[in-house]
Amino acid sequence: MRVAVVENMKNTGLGALARALDEAGAEIEWFRVWQDGILPLDIAGHDALVVLGGEQSALDDETHPYLPELARLARRFGDAGKAVLGICLGSQILARAYGADNHLGTAREFGWHRIGLTGEGRADPLLSALGGEFTIFEWHADTFTLPESAVRLAASPVAENQAFRIGRAVYGTQFHFEADRTVVEQWKAEFPDTIARIAPGWLENHAELAAHHGVAADAAGLAIARAWVSLIEPAEIGLLSEAPA
């Protein structure tokens, strides 16, 4: 199982997703586009694609010129039936790739929040184990319209498109399900000034908030991570499924 991970911002981290990929014996290849702008040459070398978050918007082509190609690459993976996962900025790039509109600065959420599932979400392989709603970590200001080909899976009062699916295994999650308490602690240490500006008082209350929400959020995030990894089809399986009976 070969998975390409696109890191849009230094030290983003995989958190719960790293654990799920490790359990599945996945081989991860990192593409640190924040450093060199290099993306996979094509889709043949990987069974799945993960696009992580970042501080830029999905439309910041001038300062991040790789973004249009990343959107096209994600679309090629998805059109080929391969598993694709976009988290936060990654979900916004996926929305762009499939023809939706990106809305900048209109949907700020930070910290642990409750997310509600749609009827489709309750039945979807990614989220069906979570019941009708769950707590998870958020950090975003942008949002997007739902691509025409997508199914809305989850929503919040601030951003109605919290999770969507296109086809078999193309998923975008606006929320950071990968951000377990360890990842959040790292973000707290690395970005204190930004957090203090966008969420006054959160740093001072972090310990109490983590104690109240962290266990449930970590469990939900790991369940989502394992569910998505289970949808990855290694190339050998795909070839066998095409063999004549």
Layout of SSEs?
Elements: E1 2-7, H1 16-23, E2 27-32, H2 33-36, E3 48-51, H3 67-79, E4 83-87, H4 89-97, E5 102-103, E6 109-117, H5 119-123, E7 133-140, E8 143-144, E9 150-155, E10 163-166, E11 170-173, H6 181-190, H7 192-198, H8 202-229, H9 235-241
Parallel strand pairs: 1-2, 1-3, 3-4, 4-11
Antiparallel strand pairs: 5-8, 6-7, 6-9, 9-10, 10-11
Helix pairs in contact: 1-8, 3-4
**Count of separate structural domains:** 1
Structural class: alpha/beta
Largest sheet: 9 strands, mixed
Rg: 17 Å
Strand content: 15-25%
CATH architecture designation:
3-Layer(aba) Sandwich
Oligomeric state of the chains?
Answer: single chain
Write down how many β-strands occur, each being a DSSP E stretch of 2 or more residues.
11
Helix segment tally: 9
Q: Extract low-pLDDT stretches.
A: 237-245
Indicate the percent of residues in helices.
25-40%
Describe this structure in words.
The chain is an alpha/beta fold and 245 residues long. It has one domain: Rossmann fold (3-Layer(aba) Sandwich), CATH 3.40.50. It contains nine helices and eleven strands. Helix 1 runs parallel beside helix 8 (202-229) and helix 3 (67-79) crosses helix 4 (89-97).
In short:
With 245 residues, the protein is of the alpha/beta class.
What are the main properties of this structure?
23% strand, 245 residues, Rossmann fold, nine-stranded mixed sheet, 9 helices, disordered C terminus, two-stranded antiparallel ribbon, alpha/beta
